[in-house]
Every structure is written in structure tokens, then in C-alpha cells.
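I would like you to sit down with the record closing this message with an eye to the fold:
=====
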Amino acid sequence: MLIVTGSLTARPDNFDMFLGEAIAHVRRSRDEDGCLHHGVARDCEHPYRLVFVERWRDRAALDAHFRVRGSIAFVTAIRREAETWEGPEIYEVAA
């Protein structure tokens, strides 16, 4: 099993857009084969930071997720519009 983490920091003027896109991305990702968990949370200490935590069955499922058109579009928007982007960090764990 793989655990994936990441975060983005939006600007005040684009936070609502990123929150909506993040929720849509998470919901879409949950339906993908091999997705065991996909979530996003707002950082309690930084109001414009979103934190992502995911669990995937294996590397093949995660690689397929990275190739999904919606995932590519979401990451492209983050790289273009977010203040900061950290991740993804990928950890292999024993189930």
C-alpha cells in the first residue's frame, strides 16, 4: 500500500476556487480503481493551505491516477495558480 501526501497554499483571491477544485478532485479520485482513501483538509493554522492525504493499493493504481485527465488538469492549475505546492510525497507501507 502507498500513502501519498501533499499540500497547496492558495492566495486569498483564489482559495475558494482551489477548495472547490480540490473537493471535486478528491471525489473523482475516490472512484478510481485502487484508491483506498483520498481526502483534503484545510490547515487549522494557515487558512489558505489545503492538505491532501491518499492511500493507494499499489504503484500501478497510483500511476494510473497520475495519468487521469482530471488529475493532470488539477496539478497543472496548482502549478500555475497556487502560492506554494508541496508534494507529492509517496510512502510505501506494509498493510
